[in-house]
Amino acid sequence: MSFASTAQARINQAAMRLFAEKGGNQINVSELAQAAGVARGTIYNNGVEPDRLFEEVVAGLASEMHARIALASQDIADPAIAVANGIRHFVRRAHEDPVWGRFILRFAFSSNLLRTMFESQPSVDLMKGLKAGRFQFQPDQASSVLAMIGGTGVAAMLLVLDGHKTWREAGSNAAELVLRALGLEAAEARAIAANDLPPLPES
């Protein structure tokens, strides 16, 4: 990995942490450089524009996670498993990368791009499940179902980041409850939610 790419990764990680801590979408170059452990000149040399940094971080995060979840789902025939695994992947990543997780918690429902990240692959899996009779909901309820999935996933991430549950417990519980809400029987929903979770593919 080159110094430039390493520095960029540190800058992006520092920016996520600062945005999550401050709760706003503006940070200055000095505080970003200090948080990233780089010189101010390195910030500019990596093409960072402070006024656009929040949007760039969100866009990069959303596209990267969407691509990885889509890859993870492409060979799964059962949409119930795909939905459950998608929820659990988000929860596990929050455990593995708390800075990422805190950023998601802070902005999940205030950023259109982050909402799209939560809704894109689940919407595909939901429609497959509805068409196959695997899920039970009315077509005009799809947006509400997506909101339920996103809200349940974010709440599970919060439980993990605040130390109330392990990622396995929180992720499996969230997935089980969502599958129950979608019409699966209790025993099957629990079994699917407790399956081994494969690694999240690299995009």
From TrEMBL:
Coiled-coil region(s): none
PROSITE patterns from the UniProt entry: HTH_TETR_2 (PS50977)
Listed InterPro entries: Homeodomain-like_sf, HTH_TetR, TetR_C_40
Protein name from the UniProt record: Transcriptional regulator, TetR family
SUPFAM superfamilies: Homeodomain-like
Organism: Fulvimarina manganoxydans
Annotated HTH tetR-type domain residues: 5-65
DNA-binding region positions on the chain: 28-47
One MF annotation (Gene Ontology) recorded for this entry: DNA binding
Organism superkingdom: Bacteria
Organism placement in taxonomy: Bacteria, Pseudomonadati, Pseudomonadota, Alphaproteobacteria, Hyphomicrobiales
Keyword terms of this UniProt record: DNA-binding
